[in-house]
Amino acid sequence: MRRGPERLAWTVLLASFAVCVSLAIVVPLGIRSFINDSTDPAQLILDVPQGTTFLRRPNSTDTLAVTQRTIDLPEGSDVIVDQSTQAALTMRDPETGSSLVTVQLSGITNLTIITARSPRFAVSPDPHRFRLFLTGGRVRLNVSGNHRAVAVSVQSPQGEATFSVGTYVVEVTNQDLQVTVREGLATVGAQGASVVIEPSQSARVPMGQMPQGGLSGERNLIARGSFAEPIDSDWIIDHGPQNEDEPKGNVTTAIAGGRRAAQFSRVGPGHAETRLTQVIDRDVTESISLKLHFAVQVNGQDVPVCGSLGSECPMMVRINYRDTSGTAREWIQGFYSLADTSGVNPRYCVTCAVRNPHQIVPLNTWFTYESDNLMDALSVNGTKPARILQITFYASGHSYRSSITDVELLVKD
After folding, report:
1. Do 221 and 199 meet the contact criterion of CB atoms below 8 Å apart?
2. Given 2, 185, 224, 296, which is the most exposed site by the fewest CB atoms within 10 A?
3. What's residue 32's pLDDT?
4. DSSP code string of 158-204
5. CA-CA distance, 102 to 93, in Å (whole number)?
6. How far apart (Å, rounded) are the C-alpha atoms in residues 208 and 175?
7. Average pLDDT by stretches of 10, the chain with 413 residues
8. Partners of 293 in beta bridges
């Protein structure tokens, strides 16, 4: 006969109770951890509106030439562009399809996708995560906000930068890392130190040194150029000459190609012009640099190039300014997608004072435009631009559908 059956019974009972309590705690915590921490690879889209981008997938030595959209970009992929190429890497929300992060690549740029993941379950409180390693070159980041946060960071040989919702430029050379804030806040860290920079500021990290923050960057003269909110008093919508009994065009904020934008639309008949203007009225007499940047997408037009006089582009931009002599002047650039196979329609605006060649852009694809220094282009007969009066984006023709976003007019003194 066994001794102490009561002790054995109590031991078994207490052990069972302990196991039951442990399971009651561990199992829910494990389930909660699984739901909160589980992730799936994010949807990444690479658009190549100009030139050829080179893509190298992880664990492969083969380099693929990419000239059109591709959506199969796993983590660990290398993306390389040359001087004549333009590309955009977009991370999209798996639930809504809207853009979370857009990375515009230009010049000689080489980056690696380290992390691109989204929470697997909608109830998870974790953010989307997007992390890049920029070996060299220049990228422009647009980080969008929605119901879930987005944790975005860019590493380089010199340091690392993290970003909130906003727009940023990151440039890496053999000597340093430079981060410039257009909108939002960025934290730049290296060597155990960090700095926070605000709009119109930049930070620099020399190789092997701590970051230098609060440096003066380019100033953006445009307000609300990302169109994250409905068009308000910063922008004015008006219409060009047309018959009163014919339909007017419209400008609204909408999701176009996964990005928040100002969308111009009209269905004919007859000619019409739909304009979106912002009054700037800023002095640039002492400025050394003035650059225009924006993204444009053409979704439809019904006249080849820009019409018989070159004045009916699905998207045109005009800068009105005064030069140092007090003379009112303008600068114009047009964009189109429908080519003229007959070669009849001109590739510049015949009726405009400035005859810059119109630029063809791929249909249904975001194209990033970045001007050269306009202080040179706006100088006429020895007079320099003195005051920028306003900027106008307009669609012209019969039927058109086009969009713009990320509008910046950057001045440096």
Report:
1. no
2. 2
3. 61
4. S-EEEE-SEEEEEEE-SSEEEEEEEES-EEEEETTEEEEE-TTEEEE
5. 12
6. 9
7. 69 82 74 69 91 91 90 91 89 86 90 93 87 94 86 96 94 91 94 93 93 84 90 89 81 90 91 93 89 95 90 95 92 94 88 90 93 92 91 94 95 82
8. 370, 408
Residue 228, pLDDT score: 85
Query: Which residues lie below 8 Å from residue 351, measured CB to CB, with a gap of 6+?
Result: 309, 310, 311
Maximal C-alpha separation, the chain: 117
Structure tokens at 310: 């070159």
**245-249: long-range contacts (C-beta < 8 A, 24 or more apart)?**
246/270, 246/272, 247/272, 248/272, 248/274, 249/273, 249/274, 249/395, 249/400
**Amino acid present at 107:** G
- Pull the structure tokens for residue 390: 């306003």
Q: How far apart are CA 205 and CA 179, in angstroms?
A: 9
Radius of gyration of the chain (CA): 27
Report d(CA 169, CA 181) in Å as an integer.
7
Q: Which DSSP state fits 307?
A: B
Half-sphere exposure (CA, 13 Å, Cβ side) for 53? 30
Q: Which element (helix H / strand E) includes 352?
A: none
The Cα 59–Cα 50 span in angstroms is 27
Expressed in percent and rounded to 5, the helix, strand and coil fractions of the chain are 10, 50, 40
Q: Which domains does the chain have, with CATH numbers?
A: 40-216 (2.60.120.1440), 236-412 (2.60.120)
Instruction: Label each residue of 16-37 as H, E or C.
Output: HHHHHHHHHHHHHHHHHHHHHH
Question: Taking the CA of residue 144 as centre, how many other CA atoms within 13 Å lie in the half-sphere pointing to its CB?
Answer: 25
Q: Tell me the sheet residues that pair with 196.
A: 187
CA proximity to 406, closest of 396, 395, 397, 393: 393
Residue 373: the pLDDT is 93
Output the six-digit token pair for 99: 């853009």
CA 309 from chain center: how many Å?
Answer: 33
* Tokens matching residue 262: 């100002």
DSSP symbols for 193-209 = EEEEE-TTEEEEEETTS
pTM score, whole prediction: 0.77
Distance (Å) of CA 367 to CA 50, 104, 337, 406 = 8, 10, 11, 11
| Residue 184, φ and ψ in degrees, nearest 5 | 100, -160
Query: Which ranges of 38-61 would DSSP assign to H, the alpha helix?
Result: none
Give the integer Cα–Cα distance in Å for 339 and 287: 38
